[in-house]
């Protein structure tokens, strides 16, 4: 681990804990500390809930959690009730006083976050929210919701090409020539874009780009699938399969007779996706355009005439 990376994360942690008042005994001027405010939230959004479930969700020490629950009981915020289906288990529920305490904490948190976001406007705010969401997804990919696929927005094609260049340089050592090819593809796509014949789709998870793909018009009723990629944090969700299927459906509806693509024998995951959609490898050829010897492959899917 690079020391500069550790230093950067620790610097942000110090900034953020101070910014949100995590060090205050009375969080946002309420009767709860930050850990207590979080526990209140989990009880309010999950009740009835057992202490064991809360321990699993929060990852808290059992003794520490038990002492917080005891304080809540002392304040009249929660009650325990024996479950009808299991006499050994006791559910926690908020009392009216507990709901009032939660409402105050929740309202003040929302107001504080709103005030914080109010200092950042427009594109900068979108960048901030996306960066925070991306950080969560990178650290905990399973926390992401379901993906959805949409058409591209202004500025995204170039971002997609740049991202692919970074990912392939890291995973396969492919160099500048790949970036040149990707740049040429994007320039031609934007210059000649015809939405009835071409398209770029972006897969999103919680508003963060998780993958993308292009379909371009090659002439003579032939379409080409280009620049498929899925972000590492978003893999094994079926995103690649969904993006390729979207390309196939679009090409059929647009009246193309075939859909082709160029890939490489080392990209096994992508090749499995193409094969599952009915593509067949029709030509292979060695090249070193990316700085290393590679076997390039042309794949083709015949579509209904």
Automatic annotation (TrEMBL):
One of its GO terms (molecular function) is N-acetyltransferase activity. Residues 1-137 form the HTH marR-type domain. The keyword Transferase applies. Residues 147-305 form the N-acetyltransferase domain. PROSITE patterns: GNAT, HTH_MARR_2. Keywords: Transferase. The keyword Transferase applies. This is MarR family transcriptional regulator. It comes from Sphingomonas endophytica.
